[in-house]
Automatic annotation (TrEMBL):
InterPro entries: AhpD-like (IPR029032), AhpD_core (IPR004675), CMD-like (IPR003779). This is Alkylhydroperoxidase AhpD family core domain-containing protein. It comes from the Bacteria. Signal peptide: none annotated. Residues 12-93 form the Carboxymuconolactone decarboxylase-like domain.
Length: 149
């Protein structure tokens, strides 16, 4: 699929503004492995090939196993994720699908039991920023480059 607009070149300041969230996100208590899982799951839901490719690589680099990455779309049906990860993934799915889920109290209560308020705000920022990147990449048809590995 051909890229519609080279948005990085057309509006580099816009890309820089969104990317400016990265240092803050990296400084939070949301560890790199969980962050990569959440970013990957959000990108899977949204169908962003560019971000699925990037965050799969980031997750492996952060120490994630291939089996857990392979099973991420069906995380509820596997024993591979702990309760904190499950709460974060449920929250990520609900926030990503906010127009249909309304982010119900039951999902909030589950994630709130595993994350303090600050960490929950930070996790929600991770999810929100990932959704923004997905929407930009999908809208302008930014796909991943072929890799040899």
């Amino acid at each position: 699929m051909a890229q519609r607009i080279a948005y990085q070149q057309v509006a580099p300041d816009a890309v820089k503004a969104l990317a400016a969230t990265r240092p803050y996100i990296a400084s939070t208590n949301i560890d790199a492995r969980l962050r990569a899982l959440v970013e990957l799951r959000v990108s899977q839901i949204n169908g962003c090939s560019y971000c699925v490719d990037m965050h799969s690589r980031e997750a492996r680099h952060a120490g994630e196993t291939q089996q857990r990455l392979d099973c991420l779309p069906v995380w509820r049906e596997t024993p591979f994720y702990d309760e904190r990860e499950r709460a974060a993934l449920a929250w990520a799915e609900s926030v990503t699908l906010v127009s249909t889920t309304g982010v119900p109290d039951s999902v909030f209560e589950q994630v709130r039991s595993k994350f303090d308020e600050k960490d929950l705000v930070d996790l929600t920022l991770v999810i929100s920023v990932m959704n923004a990147w997905n929407r930009i990449a999908i809208s302008f048809r930014q796909g991943p480059a072929a890799r040899s590995n």
